[in-house]
Every structure is written in C-alpha cells, then in structure tokens.
Amino acid sequence: MGNCGSFDPDDEFSYHPDELCDQCNCPKPPASQNYDPLIPYSSQYTPPPSSPLPENLVVALYKYEPCHSDDLGFEKGEKLKILNADDPEWFMAESLFTGQRGYIPQNFVGKLNSMETEPWFFKNLSRNDAMRLLLAPGNTQGSFLIRESETTPGSFSLSVRDLDHTQGDIIKHYRIRNLDAGGFYITTKISFSSLSELVKHYSREADGLCTRLVKPCQTRAPQKPWWQDEWEVPRESLKLERRLGQGQFGEVWMGLYNNNRRVAIKNLKTGTMSISAFLAEANLMKTLQHPRLVRLFAVVTQEPIYIITEFMENGSLVDFLKTPEGCAIPINTLIDMAAQCGFFWQLDTHLNPNIHIAFREHKMFIRYNVELTCKITL
C-alpha cells in the first residue's frame, strides 16, 4: 500500500511531504505546477469564466415516471428550468425539451454544468455518512467519493475505501486544498485545474494515496419524495403483500402503494383507539422529520385503520443481527450501528415535548443492503 498521508488538524488525511509555511504551519502550495503528462493543459492557467447560464437550470440525473396529474416526467439527461423551489422536496419546473410544466422530485436533478452531475460527488454528506456509504455492500477497495468539507467551507475532501490486513476494510480521508489562482491539490508535487482532472489522475495510479481510485461509491437510485397532498389515502390504493409481524394492537405488512411504491403498512385492530384520537396523534406524528426516524407517510382513517410508513428492507435490527448475514458484519460496522442506536436517546431533546419514544429493540429497524442506516419507529 502507498503512503496514506499525515494526520491533519481537522482529522482528515492530507498528504503534503514538502515544506511547511513558517507562519501558519500549513503546506506551501506548489511553486510551479508539475503537470501530469497524460492530462492536456494550456500553457498558462486561466480561471474559467463565469457561466452565463441562469442558476435555475438543472439536468435530470435519473429517469422519472410521473404518477400524478401535476408532476412532470423526464428522461435522464433532460434539461429543466426551476420555476419555484419553495417546497424542499418537490420543485415546480419546466422542461426545456417539451415545454411542459409540473412538479419534479428535487433529489432526481442536479445543477446544470456543476459537480452535482458527477457520480463521485456528494454535496451534503458528513464524514460519518461517507464512511457508512463506502462500507456498505456493493463497495470494495478503491471505491471513493468527493464531498464538501465539514470544517472548511468552499473546500472538499476525498474519502476512499481501503483494505488493511490487520484492521480489515477502512476509510481514509484526504483534504483537497485550493490554490489561490484556481485549482486543487492533495500533494504539493502535482496540482489540477479541476476536481475531474484530480479524479482521472488518481484513477490511473495511487501516487501517494492509500490505493488507486477504482469506482465511485455505489448508492441506490433515490426514492422519490412522498407526494405532498397524499395524507389520507383510499384503502384501494394499498396492496398487502407479506405479513412481517403482529402484536397486541395489530399487524405489520409489506405492501405497495399505487402499485409502484414499497411501503410498510400497520393494520390496527378494530377498537384499538377512536378515529378522532388516532387522527390527532397521527397529525402530530407527521410533523416529525428526522434522519433516524422511520417516516410516517399516510393513513387510512376508516376502520380497520392503516398507518403507511417508510419500508426498511432488512426489518427488525435485533432479528437481522441473528441472521447469517448479520452475524458476518465486521466489527467496524457493528460499532457504527451501535453509535446510530445510541443516537436514538438524543431524539427526545429534538422532538415535540408531547411525544415520547419507547426505546425497545423491536422498534429499531435497519437498511443494510445498499446503505447502512438504523432507524426507530414511534
């Protein structure tokens, strides 16, 4: 394995073996650029001109099939103009190809001519979440991503999955530093005019990193946000497919909503609670949005009452850990899962004071196949 870099003050690796500044002890940027012979450069670097394109132009990162009268379908690569972005999940947009207007899911598009269209760029991603994604199944040694720095606004970090013969799968982090005249570098011996050129170089050779960059971090296509007006839904829109469990108050099923959205459906026993009391509690619960809470999507208010929530593919955490797949989880991943579960106990300080979470092992769920996420249900 190559040199993995020195320890950086912001707890990220930064490989800079050359001279340090006498005043701030930071690595000096290259006095003169040493060019990679395989990358075409102009004779003198000139910062790129500002784009004349308006800020509200986006490009589709995935294909989207419309499901409602007001949403707008589009193909991957199609360009759209954002008309209204007041809703955090659904943008009103106009297709530059068809001229049609409608709502589009914001997580299916990225800004035109920006790094958001690159498969290796993750805009709003923390260091810990980067580690979870890279350690998830589907990624191997050399899987990588570039994210915005948490500690230095305007800067970036490179996260790479590596294999250590004593520790197993580990994640190394490198600070990507900015040049005053424009450009980026990890080691002062070579700099790049763009992050794309940096990725191309280290994809050919490790050149001081712990390993060569092999492939962008694998993630599943995003799930479209729940439609904004779908709260009380008709029972006919739901299809119960497989019973997942049962308890004192009813059953839990895996099902489909409108034949295209996988959901979990809680079927409450008749007489468990009055419809008015249920609606009062459900309306309070739907206001709660947190990355560690299983999201409540919709309800059926006629008995038997249905509660429609986010579906966690691997089910109960305690049951999953007893399976052969769960027993084979490496120790580093188990520690992260424990940390996520420990975070549940902090939720009471962030939620509505009228709501209390009962922390029982059967209420904790996991999504492990493509991402490592533990959540709790109310």
From TrEMBL:
It is found in: Cell membrane; Membrane. GO terms for molecular function: ATP binding; non-membrane spanning protein tyrosine kinase activity. Its EC number is 2.7.10.2. It is an enzyme of class 2 (transferase). InterPro entries: Kinase-like_dom_sf, Lck_SH2, Non-receptor_tyrosine_kinases, Prot_kinase_dom, Protein_kinase_ATP_BS, Ser-Thr/Tyr_kinase_cat_dom, SH2, SH2_dom_sf. Residues 120-217 form the SH2 domain. Belongs to the protein kinase superfamily. Tyr protein kinase family. This is Tyrosine-protein kinase. It comes from Sinocyclocheilus anshuiensis.
